[in-house]
Design goal:
alpha+beta, 10-stranded mixed β-sheet, 6-stranded antiparallel β-sheet
Length: 678
Amino acid sequence: MTHVDRDQWGVPQLWAGDVDALARLQGRVAAVDRAWQISAERWRAEGRLAAHVGPAELAWDRFARRVRLDDTARRCYERLDPDTRRWVEAYVDGVNSGLAEGAAAAPEFAATGTAPEPWHPWSPLGVFLVQHVLFSTFPNKLWHAHVARTLGPEAAGLFAVEGPASSGSNAWAVPADPATGRGPLIAGDPHRLLELPGVYQQVRLACPEFDVVGLAFPGVPGVPHFGHTGHVAWAVTNAMADYQDLYRERLRRDGDRVLVRDADGWTPAARHVEEIEVRGGAPETVEVIETPRGPVIDHDRVTGEAIALRTPSRVEARLGFEALLPLLRARRTGDVAEALRHWVEPVNSVLAADTGGGVRRLVAGLVPVRDERCRREPVPAWEPAYRWRGDYLPLVDEPVDGVAVCANDRRDDVAAHGADFAPPHRARRIRALLADGAEPSTVHTDDRLPAGPLYRLLDRLDPDRLDEPARALLLRLRGWDRAMAAGSAGAGAYAAWRAALARRLRVHPRLRGLDEPCGFDELFAPWTDPAARIGLALDHLAAAFDLAEPAAEALAEVAAGPAPGEWGSRHLLHPVHLGVAPAITDAVTAMRRRVALGGDTDCVLATSSVPGISDACWRGPVARYVWDLTDRAASRWIVPFGASGRPDDPHFADQLTHWAAGTLIPVPDGPLTGDETT
């Protein structure tokens, strides 16, 4: 017997008699609630999204074919241990049993004239790869190569900040209090692209072996990143590890054969051609090449060299799925650590706490041992010095005394694993708030900007050299409280000034060279677009250059123009979606009217925008949670939108206003009643 309950927010609570039946039920519910979402992610993994959506997705499909996502998923599936493989197959059986029902209520299928397709046993592994293949640091290496080529190697430090897809997440642990009997507490808020439907799905998974609440990836069994078993809870942030390398490859053609330069001469590379179908357009062929380093994902159009990607998941044919079922069975922090010994990528910082009072900090995943240059830029494949040495850095597993904070920052536990980390101010701010006794929800929504080099630039400007409107604006910004609150006109004015400054820096004499052709595929533009990278690096640039003149000019521009308005009128919600169904587009328009967003890229409430490009919020907290180890029923969580992916469902976006306001809702923890039997 299996059954599904739903709480007042539509969050599914699943019960089954054994783990495989529970996985089957989780797959079915994911398909019913998120049929279009998981189908689109499956097509992404296979490089077949353009066939269903149209030419706009060709860049992704080319990349997915070249990087061999589907083939890697198959290889990793074939290497699963028997218990994990059976469990994953049960989940896929559930997905296939629910797709027709879910698709019938999802308007995207009708809008595109498509139908869901039965999943393969390895499809969940492909979906997981899609979520994380661009989550690491390798696109930054393309940017570093462009900076070195156009500005010189010494300019890399100007942009020593993670790119637009990595930092922003927070997690913290508060230790137990023996005097009161209170257990530990773990809280956090992962930051990723704000996708609609949300990338995480709240769920409760219960069977005779365990009863877990957590956040699942739709299309993937279990709760990989954030969960509470009633005995132990865990949370992850990006460890900012560097575990994927790019190699410059020299290729030679011999008819249909491709040879690649190696240390000992020329050696054959695997090569074949695939055809990408395109909805409403002609099919496109893509050449798929794999060298001894890895798949060729791009070509440098400046040097003519191919660019190959080497990843632990492809080298080892493992993703870490063997950790997922043991995590559900965990009862102590040691069980979490033991489960995560199987983890591969992405490399995560993990906080775990249990009802016994123990708190541990882990770094889980595979980081290869190799030359330090590999961490900075694409390296010559034919030089033996840049080969991986066959070893990986050891798993970090250490007890924690006192408060622990992870905010993508450089710490002793992660320093050896990465090169670029997020600035330390978010971690410092969280520690300060916790020291003052702030509640988790207050920490989550803290919108105060640090007084970094960009803001301090205002103090270096001479008011007497400005006209009256610009002088008034300068004095206003100096007196502003640096709170990026939705209703703050000061925050709106500050955002308008920094955007005007960012635009001026595009033509700064020391940065103008960045506008030379980059040479890499359009898919990597979020990482390689000079305008975006300048906007994201304003603090570094303000510390490195004398920007008094362009800063004053930007003040004059803003002061002479229309009033910037409140921050919330500029910082509009901009969730990422395929835009194929008018019902979804209409829903997004309605969402923007319902909420006004506070926060900013450098706040604890890291609702990101790109100064000089747009103040729209395209990235932010994709969930918030508070795991209470004293009483799980006291735990709280929220997601940006809702439990359902169907716009006509009352739970499509019923959590949005709470998410925007910073409030949390209870996790389901009562008896399962079995109102709905399957």
